[in-house]
Amino acid sequence: MINMKEQIIILINLQEIETETNMIKSALAGVADKIDALDLELNCFERIVEEKNIFIDDLRKKYKTLESDCQMKLTLLGKSQDKLTAVKTNKEYQTVLKEIDDIKVKNSDIEEEMLKILDAIETTEKEISGLTKESLLIRERVNGEKETIMREAEQNRNDIAVLDEKWNNISKKATSEILTKFNRVRDFIKGTTIVPTIDAICQGCNMNIPPQMYNDLLKFDSIKYCPHCQRMIYWGKT
Ligand SMILES: [Zn+2]
Known about the structure:
Elements: H1 4-29, H2 31-86, H3 90-171, H4 176-189, E1 194-198, E2 201-202, H5 211-217, E3 224-225, E4 232-235
The protein binds zinc ion.
């Protein structure tokens, strides 16, 4: 003879384990998103540093180009100055002088531009140094947070394994018929399978159950189902 009250209590215990397991599972489901968000935060910051580095490389290249341009013009200047000693007519003399002047004007423009670039390089270097320090701090924090999340996830997986074992052990005490019913309702409801009724209200769907059924619940002599949500119901507190 099956003790129905005992069977119902077994199902209630199984339900408690499942509820706890589901809570842990939903926490675990958020782990990947949390890790992704942390990675994104770090990547975004590192990209800023990267862009600054590209910017400063560009400035240095520009500076080098201007520098060699300036150098070339100085060579031209030297040649023109040499020419100056060899000119024969005043017209030639004026032409070479004009050449020399033009080169000097251009070189002064270039030098001005070079100074501006040097300033920009200096400013950017300072920015990069600050950003790099900050980036290291962010990396340290992100890695720490990730480690904590992973450790918690590991703990969660262990807890689930323990709960699964507990579920298996307890379910062995249920008759296969009752367990099949329980599984069937769970598959249908996709959530809490067995719920108490308190003051004739199903705690699964918050609807009133018929008075006669409610009274029958007190007997604990059969499995009853909420007529509204089809969950298994049992007598809760009044
Ligand atoms: Zn219900």
